[in-house]
Amino acid sequence: MKPDDFYSTFEKDFTSWAVATDDIRAAFVVGSRARADHPADQWADLDIILYADNSDFYLHDIDWLKSLGNIWVTFAYQTSGGEPERLTLFEGGFQVDIVFLASDSLYRLVKDRSIPYNFRRGVRVLVDKDNTSRYILPPDFKPAASPAIDERSFVQVVSMFFFGALYTAKQILRNELWAAKARENDLRKLMLQMMEWHAKALNGNDYDVWHAGRFLHEWIDQKVLQELKTTFSLYDRADSLRGLLASIDLFRRISVETADKLHLKYPADTDHHITNWIRENTRDLANGE
């Protein structure tokens, strides 16, 4: 079955089930299958937000979900924002992610005339029994406005990066490569935040940097993209150190440029002390000794 055929059928069957189930009050499609800008490709999943009077029941009891397709695997999880969701793979590798929220949260949105963050880029109505959509759908689809970059947050990210860099260096020196690789992921999250800020510093605060690194190759400065490739390393002591040092160099460069553009204070002492510690204590490893 082709992806478009599966997801079209699933939406139709899901909508029929939701309409016939009294305590399901609304359901919306978000994500790439609701976007005009960067719409779904053949690998895209289906993201649904469901509002129900008894949302926790539908999150954990999956008999209703089994009626919609042959399930390979399904489990309850949380979104990056902490909202309860169920991730499901159906036969053919087709993925459906459903967020389950209480009806009361929907009614609060209506009362406050508040547009959910994940509606901003695109949303389609599957079910709306209480006519709430006219109050919470955006008038047009564009990314939500982001707050200006403040010095306190900037210094916090720089401080956390260098703190994590020193910890990573210690694990490399111990030959605890699993721990080092795990911490590398934390450093990459901080690197991504700085890359987003750097792009906005160069192009204006309204510049679209998407979310979680999506379409990064389109919005990032191309010099940064080329340097970023050198920061990934093998499961190897010497190469892990090489990747860490490359990460530090890239992070420093874009942080300093961001600070200069936005007139923020760069914590140079933190950088100096920690970078020197890493270079002094890893000199033998860096020299292949």
Could you give a quick summary of the protein structure above?
The protein has helices at residues 3-20, 55-60, 63-66, 103-112, 133-136, 151-174, 177-203, 216-219, 222-228, 237-262, 268-281, 283-286; strands at 24-30, 46-52, 71-78, 84-90, 94-102, 124-128. With 289 residues, the protein is α+β, with helices and mostly antiparallel strands. It starts with a helix and ends with a helix.
Structure description:
With 289 residues, this protein is α+β, with helices and mostly antiparallel strands. It has two domains: 134 residues, Beta Polymerase, domain 2, CATH 3.30.460; 136 residues, Up-down Bundle (Four Helix Bundle (Hemerythrin (Met), subunit A)). The protein contains twelve helices and six strands. It has a six-stranded mixed β-sheet with strand order 3-4-5-2-1-6. The longest helix has 27 residues. The chain is elongated, with a radius of gyration of 23 Å. It starts with a helix and ends with a helix. The model has no long low-confidence stretch (mean pLDDT 96).
Features:
Four Helix Bundle (Hemerythrin (Met), subunit A), 6 strands, 289 residues, elongated, Beta Polymerase, domain 2, 6-stranded mixed β-sheet, alpha+beta
